[in-house]
Design goal:
The strands form 4 sheets. The chain has a 32-stranded mixed beta sheet that branches. A 15-stranded parallel beta sheet has the order 26-31-33-35-37-39-41-43-45-47-49-51-53-55-57, with no helix packed on it. Strands 2-1-5-8-11-13-15-17-19 form a 9-stranded mixed beta sheet, with no helix packed on it. Strand 28 and strand 29 form a beta hairpin. It contains no helices and 59 strands. By secondary structure, it is an all-beta fold.
Length: 524
């Protein structure tokens, strides 16, 4: 029979034949001195602490309802036992053994719950500095982890219907099974090796880390949510599928597809690949060690960084975005729009580059550009180089401090500068274009078309120079030009301390000497 509350203020019950049996079934409480206080099949509203009623054991078929465990108090839930509506406060301890269940659990500041292998915790909240730990193969369902609360586990655990709020800590462990997980703003979840997470919702401000060897399936990424995938070449174990505001994305067999990275990074390791990646708002793509990224779109504050052995191909760099070929990395087919930037440094190489008006290209420390069309600006310094370069209308290219440029065409309205010990070969300047060579540079093969302009000064050496009709070449300040051909209507000015050697001039050519030296002037 159930003893009415007015006559049993401890909340004890005896509701099945035989009642509680010590060591076998029922609920038992003990006083501070270790003596038995209560025994019943169910006990309601017990209060456990170090002062009086110190501990409780919930055995088979026993039910403890609405127990409060305070500092110095402890509760143990054995196989077949149930603790329902449990509150664990600072210094309180609860142990859920194999086959035991704790339901609707509230863990407050510095309270702790330990769930052994085969035990279950179902429903409730872990508050700030509260702690629930699941040993290997334990399970949890319907739990909410609030700010600075912790839900942690060993290996092989099962989690269902978990919500992680801002600054909440949820560590599922390796080989875990997680389903119906919600990662709220300010929270993050890391899916570890061997774990499988399905139906994961990442809300705005939340972060999902999909690590090596994990499977994250049916991820729903809301606007402002972030995902951090792991991509390793020839990796059959790591799988990620999902969708977000920008469409579907996936990782399988070492290939990432369709990712939009905002305030997050997509690293590609050891022969991994990525297809159709969009970078913006602090999003980055790292490509190295044989990895390949194709069809990349870089928006404002987005970056593509390609390092040793990595390759990125088909890159569109928009305003505020940047692409880097660094430490022997390679960028191919790069289109730089107004406000975008492409870099080649530390022997990195960019090939087939188009720089629109208002766009920028920078090369330094051995970086190289090959086959580049520049309608914006290109600046090369510190031993950088460029080949098959076209400087378009309104375009500008400056090469200084030991840089080298080969096979360059400067179109009408384009400007080319070579400065500070630079070298150039095969430079053609079209009508309306201009070239300037300064400070100890070397130029081999300079062709000035009709209406083009070039100036060389301060210890520059030129060889094989052709000045077309209506074109003009100015030499000054210890500059020497050898093998100069001036067409009819073309002009060569040899200024102070300059020299023009092996000069051939057609009838109607103008050779103007003002303090310089001319050798072998011959009319045709």
């Amino acid at each position: 029979m159930i003893i009415p509350y007015p006559y049993n203020r401890t909340g004890a019950h005896a509701d099945i034949p035989g009642g509680a049996v010590r060591g076998e079934r029922g609920v038992f409480t003990w006083l501070r001195n270790g003596s038995l206080h209560q025994m019943a099949m169910a006990i309601d509203d017990a209060f456990l602490n170090s002062a009086k009623v110190r501990s409780m054991a919930v055995l088979r078929d026993g039910t403890a309802n609405r127990t409060t465990v305070n500092s110095g108090g402890s509760q143990a839930v054995s196989a077949g036992g149930l603790a329902d509506g449990l509150t664990v406060n600072s210094g309180g301890r609860v142990s859920v053994c194999s086959g035991g269940t704790a339901a609707e659990v509230t863990v407050n500041f510095y309270g702790s719950v330990y769930v052994s292998s085969g035990g279950t915790v179902s429903g409730g909240t872990v508050h700030s500095s509260g702690f629930i730990y699941l040993a290997d193969s334990a399970s949890a369902a319907g739990m909410r982890v609030s700010g600075y609360g912790t839900l942690s586990a060993g290996n092989g655990n099962a989690f269902t219907d978990i919500a992680v709020e801002s600054s909440g800590r949820f560590y599922a462990g390796n080989s875990a099974s997680v389903s119906n997980l919600t990662v709220c703003s300010g929270a993050n979840f890391s899916c570890q090796t061997g774990a499988e997470a399905s139906r994961v919702s990442v809300l705005s401000g939340g972060i999902l880390y999909a690590n090596s060897g994990a499977k994250c399936l049916d991820v729903r990424l809301e606007s402002g949510g972030r995902i951090q995938p792991y991509v390793l070449g020839r990796d059959e174990d790591t799988v990620l599928t999902g969708s977000g505001p920008h469409g579907s994305f996936s990782v399988s067999n070492g290939t990432a597809r369709g990712f939009t990275m905002e305030a997050a990074t997509l690293p590609l390791y050891y022969y991994a690949s990525a297809v159709s990646t969009t970078l913006s708002s602090g999003g980055s793509l790292f490509v190295s060690y044989g990895a390949v990224a194709e069809h990349n779109t870089v928006g404002s504050y987005g970056r593509v960084l390609v390092y040793s052995g990595g390759t990125a191909a088909d890159i569109t760099v928009g305003s505020g975005g940047s692409a880097w070929a660094d430490f022997h990395g390679t960028c191919l087919d790069v289109s730089v729009e107004s406000g975008g930037i492409v870099y080649a440094s530390n022997w990195g190489e960019c090939s087939r580059v188009s720089v629109a008006s208002g766009g920028y290209a920078y090369g330094y420390s051995g970086g190289r550009f090959v086959s580049a069309m520049v309608d914006g600006s290109m600046v090369l310094y510190s031993a950088a180089s460029a080949g098959a370069l076209t400087v378009g209308t309104g375009g500008f290219c400056s090469a200084s401090r030991g840089c080298g440029v080969t096979s360059a065409e400067v179109q009408s309205g384009g400007r080319f500068w070579l400065n500070d010990c630079g070298s150039a070969a095969g430079i053609r300047v079209e009508s309306g274009g201009s070239a300037w060579f300064l400070n100890t540079g070397k130029v081999c093969g300079l062709e000035l078309s009709a209406g083009a302009y070039a100036s060389a000064s301060a210890y520059v050496t030129l060889t094989d120079v052709s000045v077309g009709e209506g074109a003009a070449l100015y030499l000054s300040q210890y500059t020497t030009a050898t093998g100069v051909s001036v067409a009819s209507g073309g002009t060569a000015y040899i200024g102070s301390r300059a020299a023009a050697l092996e000069v051939v001039s057609a009838e109607g050519a103008v050779i103007s000497v003002n303090g310089g030296y001319v050798e072998y002037v011959t009319g045709n």
